[in-house]
Write a structure and sequence with these properties.
The chain is built from eleven helices and five strands; from the N terminus they run βαβαβαβαβααααααα. The protein is α/β, with parallel strands linked by helices. The mean pLDDT is about 85.
Length: about 230
């Protein structure tokens, strides 16, 4: 199955380079690009991509607002693509807000080509791009600056999870993959996937990205812990 992708970035050379790289993959089809958030949203609603590569800082409409519009569309618009944010180290807070809005993760613009290709495939498959250590560090740094209240609504929602589901959520927040969680808890990987599905359903979260945010905000995982 081919993954349909659009690239939204205000730098033409970035769009062209990413498009050439991705289009060379037999399982990825680049179906368009846009120079700003406004045109990116319009294009997405026209061509219905599976994944949108979204720059954070752009004119007209930034990537955060564009992600919000795509992931929380108005009544009558049913298409909601996966959004993968493209960023640099100096926009930590911004990207955190994008994850809270429902983005499936983010990737540094200077990441190796293989990482970009892998990121698109991971996000298209319904996973969140949270394994790289840089993601854990950025989210942890942001959470450290904004500690969660001890008796927040998020912490109360944890009561609906079983002890095993709570363990799985904690390991997700520490950036472990499904296989790493399975190894840590001595479970089959399919069992881990089942637990993750239940965690997301009970907490009404879209994906692993929001699960990480929830774990920090609820106080389940303290910033800086490993």
């Amino acid at each position: 199955m081919t993954t349909r992708v659009i690239i939204v970035d205000d730098q033409a050379m970035v769009r062209a380079g990413f498009a050439a790289l991705l289009a060379a993959q037999s399982d990825i089809d680049v179906v368009g690009d846009a120079p700003d958030g406004v045109q990116g949203v319009e294009l997405s609603r026209q061509v219905h991509p599976d994944v949108v590569l979204m720059d954070v800082r752009m004119p007209e409409m930034d990537g955060l607002e564009a992600a919000r519009q795509l992931l929380d569309p108005p009544i009558g618009v049913t298409h909601r693509p996966k959004v993968l944010m493209l960023t640099t180290f100096d926009v930590d807070d911004y990207v955190y807000e994008a994850l809270r809005a429902g983005a499936s993760g983010f990737l540094l613009k200077d990441a190796p080509p293989a990482d970009l290709i892998s990121a698109v495939r991971i996000v298209a498959a319904g996973e969140a791009l949270l394994a790289p250590s840089v993601t854990r560090r950025l989210i942890a740094d942001f959470a450290r600056q904004r500690p969660a209240p001890r008796r927040s609504r998020a912490s109360l929602r944890l009561n609906g999870l079983t002890p095993r589901e709570t363990e799985v959520l904690e390991l997700i927040a520490r950036g472990l993959s499904n296989q790493e969680i399975a190894d840590a808890l001595v479970l089959a990987e399919q069992t881990v996937k089942t637990h993750i599905g239940r965690v997301l359903a009970k907490l009404e979260l879209r994906d692993r990205a929001q699960a990480v945010i929830f774990a920090y905000e609820s106080g389940l995982v303290a910033p800086g812990e490993r």
